[in-house]
Amino acid sequence: DVKVTQSSRYLVKRTGEKVFLECVQDMDHENMFWYRQDPGLGLRLIYFSYDVKMKEKGDIPEGYSVSREKKERFSLILESASTNQTSMYLCASSYRQFEAFFGQGTRLTVV
Amino acid sequence: QKEVEQDPGPLSVPEGAIVSLNCTYSNSAFQYFMWYRQYSRKGPELLMYTYSSGNKEDGRFTAQVDKSSKYISLFIRDSQPSDSATYLCAYGGTSYGKLTFGQGTILTVHP
Question: Is some CB atom of chain B closer than 8 A to the CB atom of A97?
Answer without folding.
Answer: yes
